[in-house]
Amino acid sequence: MDVLVTASALEEFTRLPRPIQARVLQLVERLDRWPQVSGAKALSGNLAGSFRLRTGNYRVQFHVEPGRIIVDRMGHREGFYDD
User: Fold this and answer.
1) How many CB atoms neighbour CB 69 within 10 A?
2) Phi, psi of 13 (to 5 degrees)
3) What is the pLDDT of residues 39-79, one digit of tens each?
């Protein structure tokens, strides 16, 4: 499965602390095995249709399209789900 990262998610990634970047990168690499990705949680409400993976206090938000996964956001959990 192809994993694509949006420009805004890539920008958020560059602002993460260096040790967290490595952990988040591991999460993104795991997405190519979708749907056998452990720890993925479906989101609800206005984020319905999206999923999240977490590592500590950091989150990766993505959605699934036919044949590919789009990573939308990366960041600290505080305020992560606010629009």
Assistant:
1) 20
2) -60, -40
3) 999 999 999 999 999 999 999 999 999 999 999 999 999 98
- For the entire predicted model, the pTM comes to 0.94
Sheet containing 2-5: order of strands: 2-5, 68-76, 58-65, 50-55, 41-42
Going along the chain from its start, the domains and CATH numbers come out as 2-76 (3.30.2310.20)
Taking residue 63's Cβ as centre, other Cβ atoms within 10 Å add up to 14
C-alpha dist (Å) from residue 39 to 14, 35, 47, 48: 24, 11, 17, 17
